[in-house]
Design brief:
With 148 residues, this protein is mainly α. The chain has one domain: Ferritin, core subunit, four-helix bundle (Ferritin). It is built from five helices and no strands. Helix 2 runs antiparallel to helix 3, helix 2 packs antiparallel against helix 4 and helix 4 packs antiparallel against helix 5. The protein is globular. It starts with a helix and ends in a 13-residue tail after the last helix.
Amino acid sequence: MRGSRAASWVSPETRALQAALAAEQAAIYGYGVAGSHLSGAARAQATTWWLAHQVAADKLTAMLQSRRARPAPAAVAYQLPHQVAAAAQAVSLAATLEDQVTSAYLGLVALPAQSVRMLGAGQARAAALRAAAWRGSTQAFPGLAISG
């Protein structure tokens, strides 16, 4: 029994890195959907940020592997928060995806390892700025659910 408990224990750092990876994977999928409904400068921006999420996911995968953790694979498909059939809905989706990425990276900022905290802070900031760009405005506490 003791061996099975030890085998199933996952460190808080690994859980947080896996959550950030899952958010990045969902963003990659979502940007594919959003980008298909955008054109011009908005589509170019979506492509740039889609690639940024791929780079971030690769970095998280490498970090997990360096900690001897198995990175969770991306899902085949993701449930989107709303239907996307027009550019305005695509922009809304992109902002929501960035909010979710921000939230996931906030899980890294309280961890002991400075490199992980700095990654979390930098990526949360980047995602919050991307969300603000899509939304056209900032939020007081990006990435945090505020109940009113």
